[in-house]
Amino acid sequence: MIAVYIIIGIVVILLIMVIATYNGLVRLRNQVKNAWAQIDVQLKRRYDLIPNLVETVKGYMKHERETLEAVTKARNLAQQASSSGAGERAKAEGELSSALARLLVVVERYPELKANQNFLALQEELTSTENKISFSRQYYNDSAMKYNNQTQMFPSNMVAGMMGFKASEFFEVTVAEERAAPKVSFP
Question: Is 60:113 a contact under the CB 8 Å cutoff?
């Protein structure tokens, strides 16, 4: 009779461990989804700022049409990639960041534009948004790492495998220009 109670006790303990592990995995997976949604919020903010920035710059930069078109094209491609996975999304966002950086470098040639209050306000908003995007990406990658560790480490990997939990992709820089150190030159 005692053996039956011991077996029942072991089964109950194992069941509680499986339930606790499953709930922990669900919590971590939801944290990753939330972190991804926070990136989306900041990217939407950036997408909304870009047309205003381009319109403000257009009047001053008649000869820089290619740069403005590149920013607009990169913005559109990044928006289209919004339903893609982290890898494709990171690539599109990297290309948009590069196009914006080129635009801001070109702006340096237009002192009257740099003094325009609308442009300065938009530039400040864009800089603030880029910082928020960076922090959101970092939070997402931290959340993905915790989740991936939990899905890959014993014994929770057994529950993860049985319940269909898959590893999350990291938001990585895929554009080589973003990995390179920026070149600074003073006129």
Answer: yes
Cβ(74)–Cβ(96) below 8 Å? yes
What's the predicted TM-score (pTM) here?
0.72
Separation between Cα atoms, residue 140 and residue 7, nearest integer Å: 42
Amino acid identity, position 178? E
- Tokens coding 12: 């109950």
Contact (Cβ atoms closer than 8 angstroms) between residue 168 and residue 50: no
Q: What is the mean pLDDT of each run of 10 residues along the chain (187 residues)?
A: 93 95 96 92 87 77 73 86 79 84 78 74 86 91 96 94 93 61 44
Please choose, from the candidates 45, 26, 144, the residue with its C-alpha nearest in 3D space to the C-alpha of residue 85: 144
Three-class DSSP category at 182: coil
- Of 51, 62, 67, 55, nearest to 104 by C-alpha is 67
Distance CA 114, CA 134 (A): 25
- Using left for φ > 0, alpha for ψ between -120 and 50, and beta otherwise, residue 165 falls in beta
Terminal Cα distance for the chain, rounded = 90
Residue 137 CB partners (closer than 8 Å, separation 6+):
39, 171
E strands within the chain?
A: none
Structure tokens at 3: 């053996």
Estimate the crossing angle of helix 86-107 against helix 2-58, to 10 degrees. 30
